[in-house]
Amino acid sequence: MNRFNAITAMRLFSTAALLLLAGTSLAATTAQRDAFRDALAAAQQGRLDSVPGLRAQLQGYPLYDYLTAADLRYRLDTGANTSLDGRIQSFVNAHPDLPPAESLRRNWLPSLARRERWSTLLDNTRDSDGSTATCRAVNARIKLGQAPTDAALDLWRVGRSRPDACDPVFAWLEERGLRGPDEILRRARLAVLEGQFGLTRYLGRKLPANVAARTDQWLGVAETPANLSYSQPGLDGDIAVYAFKRLALRNLDKASDLLAPLVERLGLDAEQSHEMKRYVALLYAQEHKPQALVWFARMDHARMTEDDHALGWEIRAAVYQQRWPLVVDAINDLPPAIAGEEEWRYWHARALEEMGRTQQARAIYAPLARERSYHGYLAADALGQDYSLNERPLSVDATARGRVEGKPALARARELRALGMDHQAGQEWNAVIDGLDQAALAQAARIAHDWGWHSRAIITLAKSDYWDDLDIRYPTPYDNAVRQFANDNGLDPAYVFAIMRTESLFQPEIRSSAGAVGLMQLLPGTARLVARRMDAARPSSSALTVPEINIQLGTGYLAQMLERWDGNIAMASASYNAGPGRIERWLPDETMDPTIWVANIPYTETRNYVQRAMSHMTVFQSRLNERIVPLDERIDAVQPRYGDETANR
């Protein structure tokens, strides 16, 4: 049996380790947890009353109310009636902070609507319940004889399709003459601006022919932006801007040439003209073209005072072109709140240094170099200083900790963790930290850390605004597996920990919306390709939640990315996040300083990802007692081509 197959059977926590999470005696917890599992299964199947001994055994157990919630949910699904409504109402009212009570309430709402229990439905619908619940609630008001015109129109005036629960509300609007051609046309316009062209056509068919011609005109430019070249005065200005942006994505040079005559021909206002110039400038900047600087210069900077995205890209464009006086001028013009960000402090100093104004640069570098951050480390490199990690362990605060331990949700979260019900445990943890002050949040983070629940510990400590306990913020779980597979693949273990923290916050079973799985967030298809290259067993999606398997394949893939980019760690990190194909499109025409290249990664997520990974790696090198490799030694210059794969691009 090869090592990959052997570790497939390994589990993260032994039963004994899970029991230690609860902090109670082994015999008692084993019996209670076994009884709870049995009772919960019985409740979910409507059999709880047939096993009264289980209920008695679990009196006082932290998760006892989960049984009642499960029992009520079964009865709701199989035979809702007025009597049951009363029981559910009492349970929900008695347990406002219990996650299964909240889930029960949400599942109760459609049943109330089907049975036309309008008053009860209204009493139990909340603003946070979503659009379907809101539609039901507005319909309930109508059924109770009210006239919720404004609320009904708010539901209508949205440029996207609405859930079926809104249909009775919209029918009511039509019956009262409140959904005439003007309202239909208004919504059709919103649909165009949302890119919902099918909805626009649907609404257009409900309009008189002379009015529907307006929607045809809008669709003519929205769907085929090149038609803007022939558009005539009278075209809706916002739709013209929307179509212009689509054109710019397809043919930026053509769009930039069209901008001025289009503004004049259509009589667009100053705000619309500014939005078009802004979009052109941003696209040129993200494509690393020198035209970006021209377009930023044409913008009305009075409209940009709170536009940190555009202001940031104006600076990045000047950095990419190494127009250092422009960098200084742009940063000097920033609003103080934005100018104080570490990124702009670093580039201000860097630009001054490049201009030969060394003393001014050092005066900015010096305080920045005392910070534990990516740009703080770059500032320290510029000064030839050691990095400042500023470690300050969290002190014990018994009073603040007591405020945490006094919450019943803490015991429930602990038990759910011990039972392996991490999703439900996370819901309870949110109830734990809800409303806590900063001191109590910090102590809650320490509790989660002591449980080995690193994701919750890190997030909760951040909420407390306490940043200097590196033991909590930079844990090293799965240390043996990380060291073993890092060594097998020629990687620094600190780099693996940095990627793992950035990807998943050490959550072995997490799945992203894109389908990435586990500690190092591997797509199943990628994992299978890596496994084949490593001559390892083909992993299933569920196998990727096993830490050892995920780390083995994740380190293998990370090593492939490093090999792909000739050992350039910044580019390997960017590829791990965004894929190597995108990185190829971002290569410079000439060899480039890596800090300039990283600062100009077009995707905000990927740019931040690389900077965080490099910063995290520094801390993990310290925690693993490795030599801290300065960033200016660790990250190589970015080349215009790498090996055969980019030689002919």
From TrEMBL:
Ranges annotated as spanning the membrane: none
Database matches in CDD domains: Slt70-like
Signal peptide segment: 1-27
Family annotation (InterPro entries): Lysozyme-like_dom_sf (IPR023346), Lytic_TGlycoase_superhlx_L_sf (IPR037061), Lytic_TGlycosylase_superhlx_L (IPR012289), Lytic_TGlycosylase_superhlx_U (IPR008939), Transglyc_AS (IPR000189), Transglycosylase_SLT_dom_1 (IPR008258)
Domain Transglycosylase SLT: 483-587
Keyword vocabulary terms for this entry: Signal
SUPFAM superfamilies the record matches: Bacterial muramidases, Lysozyme-like
PROSITE patterns noted in UniProt: TRANSGLYCOSYLASE (PS00922)
Positions of the Lytic transglycosylase superhelical linker domain: 404-470
Family: Belongs to the transglycosylase Slt family.
UniProt protein name: Lytic transglycosylase, catalytic
